[in-house]
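A quick aside before the break. I want you to see a complete sequence-to-structure record at least once, exactly as it would be stored in a machine-readable document. Don't worry about memorizing anything.
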Amino acid sequence: MAALAAAAAEAVADGPRVAVVSGEAGAGKSSLLSRLRHDLAAQGWTVVAGRCPEVEGAPPAWAWVEVLRRLAVTAPPRDLAPALAPLLDDSARHPRADVAAGRFHLHRAVLAWLRAAAADRPLAVLLDDLHAADTETLLLLTSATELTDAAVLFVVALRPGDNRERLAGTLAALARRSPRRLHLEGLPAADVERLVGAFARRAVDPDTVAALAARTGGNPFYVRESAKLLASEGALVAVSEVPAGVRDVLRRRLSRLPAPAVVLLRLTAVVGREADVETLVEAAGTDEGAVLDALDAGLIAGLLTEPAPGRVRFTHGLVHDTVYTDISHPRRARLHARVAACVRRLRPDDYPALAHHYARAASSETVRLAVDYAIRAAELAERRYAHDAAVELLTNALDAAGPVAGDSAALRVDLLGRLLRAQARAGAVAAARETRARAIDVAVTSGRDDLLIAAFTAWTVPTPWSIRAYGVVDHRVVDLLTRLLRTPGLVPVDRCRLLETLTHEIDGEADPRGPEAGREALAISRDLGDPELLALGLAARLRTLRFDREARQRGELAAELRDLATTHGFVTYRWLAEQVLSQVAAALNQPDEVRASVDRQLAMADTYRLNEARVIGLGAEAALAHIAGDLVTAQRRYDESADRMRRQGSLHADAFHYFATATLLVTEGRMAEHLEPSRLVRRALGPLVDDFLALALIQSGRLDEARALPVGGHVHRPDYFQSALLTVRAMVAVALDRRDLAPPLIDALLPVRDQLAGFSSTTVALRPVALTLGELFRLTGDTEETARHFALAVRVARRWGAPHWLAEAERALTG
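That is the input. The structure line, written in tokens, reads:
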């Protein structure tokens, strides 16, 4: 309490402060926050608190809903109301189409409201059970703690061992605010004795106190429950007969309650950690007096509390969990059905609770309701940008949808489409692609093209990176799309979306259908008069233009997309346009513009929390560091990028990390260190890796093994990495004196002779293409072209400020 009081004083004097209270279940975190709330309110603070529900079926971002709705009593939002509607009004319309922009404006509005609320008197925001928070709750907390100019104290309480991975990013963000960290340990023996004595109401012998302290580890909640058992059944039972576990202590105490009280407690546990008495009276199936008598027994036993008139709450989550898990599954399902029916009558708009209870009612009579309410609850979660919660709800809906009567195929395709959009908005692109594959399978099995079109056009969320594994074409999907595009009378919007999907599926391939689809998608989108579809059409066309050879045309379209996205608030498309402009600048040898554009991309990624864009930006920073000769920083950025990709479930993480690291080792002449990784990756990716493996073998002195590889046999895709891959092949050809490989390599590289190899991607870079061409011409004996290209390599390296490649080019020119 003294440490928290000091933090509060600092917040008043110098601006926002953060405190993190940690401890195991029962350590006293909630009690500490309750005491702090009382003390600060007595000192004139505005204090608002929210709890992250530890039970299923809670609305998304609920802790902030509680905080802001309590704050609304004293600080109405007024002009902030539209942006705050997703949190203040459950009936608010679906947010703007661009998720990143909507979430950004919501978070800015919360920040502005907290600042305004703290203008007259200091504000304390207390968030309990943060370990149970959903992603949107954590993101809102991260945004809120960006306040710098208000007297606000943020106090969060959590269990340090729960959900560490989910909490990692938030705790890292809080760490930048130098929070006060308070960890609640078990009570020392003297305090255990005081607490036990308070409940036993008599002196307790030292041996009993020592035994209880040892069994409970000084955990206050466990000590309290054991002390109650001691008071009712004596020391022998309290310290010896009950197994060492708080759930067992609670079960022992429950067994001493009247049977009607236990039955009512079970019903209460099915409702949740907290329940209103009206629901319990209606769901109990008995008279009101019997319900109230049973509740009184729970209150007297200290298992329930009354947080507000007409409501009861289990004193601790462990009490709730113990009562709930001890109910048999058949009985539990029946109770959930009964509670769901009551909630539907009393609170028909409580979609999260209805979805939760109907999903667990598990009967043929409730399955349709389970699906319907899961959809409504998922829509509420989407309105609050809690996409991970929507994913869980829609997954539950799919699980329940099997026995639904009627057009089950159409229902499943619809649910799978909703699920893949939620997954894509949550950044789980690989999972979204798998979900789309499931929808396609359902549609194909049904033999209905209308469902197949619905499955393919369900992906309406713009994604910055490829949605398929590099170099892997799903020919079944491409064939299905091609067939659908021949459907007579196809609606223009559907045709546009199908074409855009086809550009994703053959992105970077030597397939003329890709550019054709991009051109047609753009042409259709220009005629539809829908800005979002025009953005989609522009993105499709940009995807199908060669990064390295059609840079100027890409630049014109990217500028159009940037203006369109800026006008209509399409954040993801604006970021995409900026990325394309940096790629254009890279292909046109404009280093200053590349660096400025990458900075703008990273600023947007941070401002709008574009996780995938942040990953790509790190790759660009790594490539720029590589060009500048700072290979240590480059490796660190690539490592961080790959780590973030893995956490996001990216399709590309391991392959990208291998290739990116390989580019650095190629520059350093250290591919021998990458020999075993190259062997492993080749097993997964096949001949795509042959050139890197051959170079690693050569630098390891294993020339015969290198010659045995089919170097030159694999045809590289004509994409943004082609010049980098061909550069490695050329290095192998020169090292092995493979003059037969020189002519096709020269033909492929001449159109990009004035570029850095691979850098039209802005994520990897190798030496100037001209340097490689000079070596290839030297291999063929053409001395004039050799000198010309070495001189060009010098100019390109100097323009990019690449000292290592400049020195290499100058040695080649003078040698």
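Two observations worth writing down. The first strand starts at residue 17 and ends at 22. The longest helix spans residues 99-117. We'll return to this after the break.
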